Amino acid sequence: MIVELREGDPQYQDLTPGQPYPVLGIEADDLRILNDQGRPYLCPREIFTVVDAREPDDWVKELGEDNELYAYPPSLDSVGFFERMSRK
After folding, report:
1. What gap in Å lies between CA 68 and CA 62, rounded to an integer?
2. I want to staple 23 with a disulfide (CB 3.0 to 4.6 A). Which of 1, 55, 81, 88 is the partner?
3. Whole-model pTM?
């Protein structure tokens, strides 16, 4: 899946409008991308336009209690993965 930021927003200064961002995963319907500094960042889906909606076939998908989607490739599908990365 590939998305683009719709418009500039002071809350998301590390993202560039019109820049394509590959989606690393989906967490409670929010999208995990790498921001302009190469850091994993969780963003609301609503701020993006979906350029390519295809999700890889190998993603591990689950629905939460409120029917929200969680989806990651197997290599990133562990609780706390991104939190551990940010501490390094």
Report:
1. 8
2. 1
3. 0.81
